[in-house]
Write a structure and sequence with these properties.
By secondary structure, the chain is of the alpha+beta class. The protein is built from eleven helices and 16 strands. It folds into three domains: 58 residues, Helix Hairpins, CATH 1.10.287; 124 residues, HSP40/DNAj peptide-binding domain, CATH 2.60.260.20; 94 residues, Urease metallochaperone UreE, N-terminal domain (HSP40/DNAj peptide-binding domain). Helix content is 32%, strand content 25%.
Length: 313
C-alpha cells in the first residue's frame, strides 16, 4: 500500500496552521478543478489527490490520526500492517455492542463489499479513515444470527445539493443508491438485509451507510448556511468590478464587487443557498482580498506615490 504524504501534496509544512492548509488547498483546487481542465486526466487525478489531502489535514481528528501513524509508518510497513487494528481501536471508529459480542470488520471496505464508489480516495485513505465496515452484533434473540453493518459513503457537495445516484456492490450484487436533493452530512441510509450473518445461511442484518459530504474547494457549510469563498485581487477590491462564480447547480453568475470592498466582507445572494424542507436559502459570498506579491520597481513606485497622495488628503 502506497504511503501518502499529504503535507507534500498540498505543499505545506507539517506545522502549518489550518488557515495555511485552507489557502494551499484552495489555490491548488482552483488550478486543477475539473471545470477548468475539461478532459485533462492528469489534472483530474491531481484534484482527487489534493482533495484527499485536504480531507485529512483540515480535520483536526483525522490529522491527529495521520500524524500518529506517520511516525510509525516504517514499522507498519515491515510488520505487514500488524498493529493497525490496535491503532484504529484507540483513535478510530467506535465499537457498539448488543446483548452479545461486538463484531467489527477492519480494513478496506472493498475487501468486504466491493467498490462502494465512495469518492475515489486511495487505498491508504480508505483503510485508515473509515473505509472499514463495522458490525453491531445480533439485534434480538430470534434474529441472533443477524449482524448490522455500518460503512461510510463519500459524496460531493454537488451530489448532496442536486441529488444523484451511486452504484455500490454488495457481495457482487450491484445496487443503486439514490441521493436525494438536500441530503445532509451525517445522514444514514438503511439497506435492509444487506448486512452480515454469524452463520453461512443465517438471517442477515442491515447495512447502514453514513453519508459524508466531502469538502469543496470553494463552498463551505457553516451552521446550515452556504458560503462561497471568493478571492478578489486588490485592484478590483479598491476600484470595484465583477467576478464570475459557478453555482452548485452548474450555473455561472456574475457578482458585483462594490468599490472599496474590504477583506472578509460578506455579500448575500437570495435564493442560491442550500435546500431545507423544500425551501432554498441564501448564498453568502465571503470576500478574501489578495495582496499582490513580487512587485517590480515600477509597481512599487506607483504604490509609494499613491501612499503619498493619500497621506496629503
Amino acid at each position: 500500500m502506497e504511503y501518502k504524504d499529504y503535507y507534500k501534496i498540498l505543499g505545506v509544512d507539517k506545522a502549518a496552521t489550518q488557515d495555511e492548509i485552507k489557502k494551499a488547498y484552495r489555490k491548488l483546487a482552483m488550478k486543477h478543478h475539473p471545470d477548468r481542465n475539461a478532459g485533462n486526466k492528469s489534472s483530474e487525478e491531481k484534484f482527487k489527490e489534493i482533495t484527499e489531502a485536504n480531507e485529512v489535514l483540515s480535520d483536526p481528528e483525522k490529522r491527529k490520526k495521520y500524524d500518529t501513524l506517520g511516525a510509525n509508518w516504517n514499522q507498519y510497513q515491515h510488520t505487514g500492517g500488524q498493529g493497525f487494528d490496535d491503532f484504529s481501536s484507540r483513535y478510530g471508529g467506535r465499537r457498539q455492542s448488543g446483548s452479545g459480542s461486538t463484531y467489527e470488520f477492519s480494513g478496506n471496505i472493498n475487501d468486504i463489499f466491493g467498490d462502494m464508489g465512495g469518492g475515489g480516495f486511495s487505498d491508504f485513505f480508505e483503510s485508515f479513515f473509515g473505509g472499514g465496515a463495522r458490525g453491531f452484533g445480533g439485534r434480538t434473540q430470534q434474529q441472533k444470527t443477524a449482524i448490522d453493518v455500518e460503512a461510510n459513503l463519500n459524496i460531493s457537495l454537488e451530489d448532496a445539493f442536486n441529488g444523484s445516484e451511486k452504484q455500490i456492490s454488495v457481495d457482487g450484487k450491484k445496487i443503486k443508491i439514490k441521493i436525494n436533493p438536500g441530503t445532509k452530512d451525517g445522514q444514514k441510509l438503511r439497506l435492509k438485509g444487506m448486512g452480515r450473518s454469524k452463520t453461512a445461511n443465517g438471517e442477515k442484518g442491515d447495512l447502514f451507510l453514513n453519508i459524508h459530504i466531502l469538502r469543496h474547494p470553494f463552498y463551505e457549510i457553516k451552521e446550515g448556511d452556504l458560503y462561497y469563498n471568493l478571492d478578489v485581487d486588490l485592484y478590483t477590491a479598491v476600484l470595484g468590478g465583477k467576478e464570475n462564480i459557478k453555482t452548485l447547480d452548474g450555473k455561472t453568475i456574475s457578482i458585483n464587487i462594490p468599490e472599496g470592498t474590504e477583506s472578509e466582507k460578506k455579500l448575500r445572494l437570495k435564493g442560491l443557498g442550500l435546500i431545507d424542507n423544500g425551501v432554498r436559502g441564501d448564498l453568502l459570498i465571503d470576500i478574501h482580498v489578495t495582496v499582490p506579491k513580487d512587485l517590480n520597481k515600477e509597481e512599487k513606485e506607483l504604490f509609494k506615490k499613491l501612499k503619498t497622495i493619500r497621506a496629503s488628503l
